[in-house]
Amino acid sequence: MQQDILINWSPQETRVAVVEHGALQEMHIERPLQRGIVGNIYLGKVMRVLPGMQSAFIDIGLERSAFLQVADIAQRPHNGDEKDPSSAVPPAKPIEQLVFEGQTLMVQVIKDPLGSKGARLSAQVSIAGRLMVLLPHDENYIGISQKIPLPQRDALRERVMQLMQGINAEKNCNNQPTRPCGYIVRTNAEDASDTELLQDMHYLRTMWARIRQASQSQPAPSLLHQDLSLIQRVLRDMACENTHTIRIDSQEQHTALLAFAQSFMPGTVPKIQHYHGERPIFDLFAIDEEMAHALGRRVNLKSGGYLIIDQTEALTTIDINTGGFVGARNFDETIFKTNLEAAQAIARQLRLRNLGGIIIIDFIDMTQPEHQQAVLAELRKQLQRDRIKTMLGDFSQLGLLELTRKRTRESLARLLCEPCPACAGRGMVKTARSVVYDILREILREARQFCPREFRVIAAPQVIELLQDEESQHLAGLSAFIGKPIALRADSSLAQEQYDIVLF
C-alpha cells in the first residue's frame, strides 16, 4: 500500500502525518517542552523496593519516580525469532534479591508516564539502529524479526553470527577483547549487505561505549542517552519500501534530514522532498480536519452507521451502531455489512488516535457464526498493517471482542486535550434545575448554622434565570421559611455547576 509521510515543523512543535491512499492513518506529535522519553537511557537510583508488588521505584530525575518490575529484569532465551525487543523470560529470583535501596542502576524507559502513573523502566537496555537492535547485556544472542520470511531467517542468522565473531575478535582502545553483545535483526535488514550490517553494528557498539563511559563519570540520577528526535525516527521506524515520498516544509530541517539519511539510511534519500507550496503542507490531505474528528467520540461510517469511542483510565470501549444504514436485503445483511465497515474503521482509528491497553469492541449482535468469523478475519487483516503490536481474542459469550494494543506513549486525545474544568472530565454537567435545588439546600443548611441579615446567590446566568422564573415560587417559599431575603446575581464567567452563596 502506497504511503506518504508529511512533516510539519515549527520551533515549538513537530507534527508527522502518515497518509495511505489519501487517507490519514497515523499522527505523531512532538513538542520540545513535552518530549517523550521512551528509549532514553538513565543512570537511576533505587528509592524503594516493594517485595509485595515485586517492583522497585527508581529516581531518574523526573517529577514522579519511575517503576521497575521484576519481569523487566530479565534474560532473553539463547536464540530466537523476535518481533518485540522487550520480550524476555522473567528471572527466577525475587526482586529483593536483585536490587537494593540506594543502588545505582542503568535503566531504559519503555513507557512514558501515563496519567498518574510514572514511567515504566527496563534493566535490559537496547539501542535501536537502522538495521539492528543492540542488546549489550545478552552475549551472542541473535534474534530475527518475524516479518522476515522464514526461509531467509536462518541464512541471515548465519551471516550475523559470522560478523559477530569478527567483531568479538577485535580489540578496543585499551587493547582489551571486545565484550560480546547480542543483536536483533530488524525487518529493514532483509536485503542488506554484509557491509551495511557491519557498519550498523559498529555504530551501535560505539554508541554503547559512549553510554558506558557516561555511566562511570556521571552521578545518579542522570540522562545517559536520548532517543532520536521525531523527524529522525521517521526514517528509522516509519519509512519502508511502500513509502512513496517524505515531504517536509522546513528548508533547515530538510537539509538536516538529508544529512542524517545519507549517513544512516541512504535508500531513503530520493524519497525526501522539501515542500515549498503556498498552502500549508497539512492542507494537502485535510490533516487538521481529520485530527479534529479524531478527538471526538463519534466516527461516522460511509454507509450511515457510526462508532462511539470512549477512552477511560482502565480501557477503551468502542460501540457500533447501524444509524441510518438500511440498504441491505435483510436485517442480518445490514448488520453484517455495518460490522465489516466498522472493522476497517476501528483498525484505522486505533492507529490514528494511538489507543493502547485493553480495548473492548461491541459489534452489533450477529446471529450467524460465519458472519462473526468474517468480521473477525477482516479486523485481523486490517490490524496487520499496524506497526504497534496487537493481540486479538475471539468473541465472548456476550458478543464482545477484546484486543490489546501495546501502549508506550500517550494517546492523541491525552496529548492534545485536558479534562474539562466544568465537568472534571466526566463528559456531563448537572442540569440548571439540579444546581438550583443544590443552592436551595445549601441556603437552608447555612441558615441553620449562621444568622446573617441577607443571602446573596451568585451563579451562572441560566441558573439565575431559572430561579427568577420557574423556580421563583420555591425561592420565595424558602425566603419566607428562613425569614431572610435572598438576592440573586448572574455571573457569566461561572460554569453551570459553579455558584457562590455570600452571607451579609
Q: In terms of topology, how is this protein built?
A:
Layout lengths: L2 E8 L2 E8 L2 E8 L10 E10 L4 E5 L6 E4 L9 E3 L22 E8 L8 E3 L4 E2 L3 E4 L6 E3 L5 H19 L13 E4 L8 H24 L4 E4 L4 H9 L4 E6 L2 H14 L7 E3 L12 H8 L3 E3 L5 E6 L3 E7 L9 H23 L3 E6 L6 H15 L6 E6 L4 E6 L6 H5 L15 H18 L5 E5 L1 H8 L3 H11 L3 E5 L8 E5 L1
Parallel strand pairs: 1-15, 6-9, 7-12, 12-13, 15-16, 19-20, 23-24
Antiparallel strand pairs: 1-2, 2-3, 4-5, 4-8, 4-14, 5-6, 8-9, 10-11, 11-13, 17-18, 18-19, 20-22, 21-22, 23-25
Helix pairs in contact: 1-2, 6-7, 9-10
Overall description:
The chain is an alpha/beta fold. The chain has 4 domains: 3-33 and 231-287, Nucleotidyltransferase, domain 5 (2-Layer Sandwich); 39-226, OB fold (Dihydrolipoamide Acetyltransferase, E2P) (Beta Barrel), CATH 2.40.50.140; 295-416; 432-503, 3-Layer(aba) Sandwich (Hypothetical Protein Ychn, Chain: A). Helix content is 31%, strand content 26%. It is built from 11 helices and 25 strands. Strands 17-18-19-20-22-21 form a 6-stranded mixed sheet, with helices on one face. A 5-stranded mixed sheet has the order 3-2-1-15-16, with helices on both faces. The chain has a 5-stranded mixed beta barrel with strand order 4-5-6-9-8. Strand 1 and strand 2 form a beta hairpin. The protein is globular, with a radius of gyration of 29 Å. The termini are far apart. The relative contact order is 0.09. The model is unreliable at 82-86 (pLDDT under 50).
